[in-house]
Write the structure tokens for this entry.
Amino acid sequence: MFDLIVDFLAGGVTQASWPVLVFYFLVVSQFTIFSVTLYLHRSQAHRGVDFHPVVAHFFRFWSWFSTAMVTREWVAIHRKHHAKCETAEDPHSPQFFGIKKVLLDGVDLYRVAKRDASITEQYGKGTPDDWLERNVYGRFPSLGPTLMLFLGFALFGLWGVVIWAGQMIWIPFMAAGVVNGLGHWWGYRNVESNDTSTNLTPWGLIIGGEELHNNHHAFPSSAKFSLRSFEFDIGWMMIRIFETIGMAKVLRVAPALEMRTDLANPDGDTVKALLTHKFQVMTDYFRGVIAPTLRAEAAHAGANLKELPRRLRNALSSGGRWLDHEARETLGHWVSQRPTMATVMDYRRRLHELMEGRNGEAMLEALKQWCREAEASGIRVLQEFAERIKGYRVAHAH
């Protein structure tokens, strides 16, 4: 009898080998990641994709079973993050809580937000509200991971408990810590969105595509997170597989931007493109106007670009928006001492302001005026950008 107990504790009913244990951990962890990114995030929070009811309910069950997350609560907190991003009301912004707090204690920030019923009430609309949600998933959220613990113990003995503990640490750390923390603190940016979001890596395979966080903030309702040819979104790959077998319907993807040539003036299509791709427009302006001007200033003065700290050089893309007061003053003084740079930064400010307007006709007239003045500025890169921006158009969907 004692030997039977020892054998059970050592390997459960399966007596599985090490490769099987590792495989089990990878499979259940990936199920959890897909439940979060495909169902909670892309489908429920942003309505970028609809899944067949069987698939949708499996993901809903699994997110409860493996993490204790209730669909309505998760969706509400995430929607508020987008609505109040990088403000004091953002549930998990490193700008306000600090990178250490969000990275290492992101789960606690989630719990604090979850206890605020007003968040769920305001931002949780449209999520499942059936009998199971009210009487099982929402009423007993901790029951899911508890059942998962007993299942792991039964299958693999104490190793099942170890795997369960690893998942309870790994998944919240990657989702609540790495994506919400590092995804607003470190990485590369494709698009100058109105926040500090970054892409962590173009080839992440372990967090479902969520590593392409800057792309997502630029186009939140897109079911596809990758934007550039070298980026790989494993979550989008799974959506396409489900779509192929009739188990998913893609509702939205990020619209493409195409260029027309030889336009004398911007037109209605230009305005539509600027409103749709305003973040991309500001990215193009930084890369096509500000960055070349910065290099030209350094070459003209015989100076090294490193004389201006990288953090301040990068801050030119946002007009210094995310700098503290002292750093913003330093950058402003540096710009003011360089007339050409001061001019292109002023044109950046004006372009950003006109794209914030909602009156299409007034915006078109302001854009025409902006282009005329840019072409008369005598600054070659600014003139070239003014010529380029006229031809912006939202590409037709295929």
